[in-house]
Amino acid sequence: MRVFVSIDMEGVAGVATLDQAVRGGTGYPRAQELMTAEADAAVRGAFDAGAEEVVVNDSHGTMDNLLHAGLDPRAQVVTGSPKPLAMMQGVSEGDAVALFVGYHAAAGEQGVLAHSFSGTFRQIRVNGRPVGELEVNALYAASLGVPVGLVTGDDLVCAAASKTLPGVLTVPVKRAVGFHAATSVHPSVATERIRAAARDAVSGHARLECPPVEDTLHVEIDFTTPLACDYAMYVPEARRAGGQGLVREVGNATDLIRLISACLHLSAQATRETAAVAARR
């Protein structure tokens, strides 16, 4: 039995500010420790339930945040960026279940450090429905027949998971107070709850169902600036929708992730260009 874990940082207990979540911040090393401990809890819970193999994808930012020496040595870790499948690199058809740890609410929500893949995205919609990292990654897992059994993070992402993923278990380790503020449980409480929930999710994976995946995915991405959208328009077959929107159809969840990743990296040039101009002033 093989289990996949995707671990982000913004939804980890005790993490609430960009100083913690962005490399170079004074709080970042401590956030690495907290993230590693929650990943380890999920891994140990999966092995407690009889998993024979657990693959962990470091899914935050530069995707090289986990302190590997702090993880159960039985785990395999996918680290570094860019990855062809981004936050879902390492999941495979036939995996028993996927566990999403440290996740956060989508852009436009009032969750802790809420965003959708990139600060240059204002909103992503698939077939008319607003989606964030949770929904996109779950859709990809579903396309492989792999259900999501556990989601941990703040109260808002857990509520979103309960609405969209049949049978999913959730562990809200903090309550959103604002974009940069949260009321969090103690890290030891968070890891205890995550390990227990991971064990239950893996033990009960046979009862889980995957949400349906439509044959054609109509993707709309609204950007925070027209310049960010300008760069993203280099994507083949993309169409402009107003001053700050891009529209494109894709035929499967793999191409959905690739489209989002391409738009992310292209639109990031707008951020770099704006910062360079500001530095010259």
Write structural notes for this entry:
By secondary structure, this protein is of the alpha/beta class. The chain is 35% helix and 24% strand. Helix 6 (226-232) crosses helix 7 (253-280). The longest helix has 28 residues, at 253-280. It is globular.
Count of β-strands: 12
* Contiguous runs where pLDDT drops below 50 for at least 5 residues: none
How large is the radius of gyration? 18 Å
> How many angstroms does the end-to-end distance come to?
57 Å
Large-scale geometry: globular
Q: Which secondary structure elements does this structure contain, and how are they paired or packed?
A:
Elements: E1 2-7, H1 18-21, H2 28-48, E2 53-58, E3 76-78, E4 97-103, E5 121-126, E6 129-131, H3 133-143, E7 148-154, H4 155-164, E8 169-178, E9 181-184, H5 187-203, E10 217-223, H6 226-232, E11 239-241, E12 245-250, H7 253-280
Parallel strand pairs: 1-2, 1-4, 2-3, 4-7, 7-8
Antiparallel strand pairs: 5-6, 5-10, 8-9, 10-12, 11-12
Helix pairs in contact: 2-5, 3-7, 6-7
Any descriptors?
24% strand, globular, 7 helices, 281 residues, five-stranded antiparallel beta sheet, alpha/beta
What's the quick description here?
This protein is of the alpha/beta class and 281 residues long. The chain has helices spanning 18-21, 28-48, 133-143, 155-164, 187-203, 226-232, 253-280, and strands at 2-7, 53-58, 76-78, 97-103, 121-126, 129-131, 148-154, 169-178, 181-184, 217-223, 239-241, 245-250.
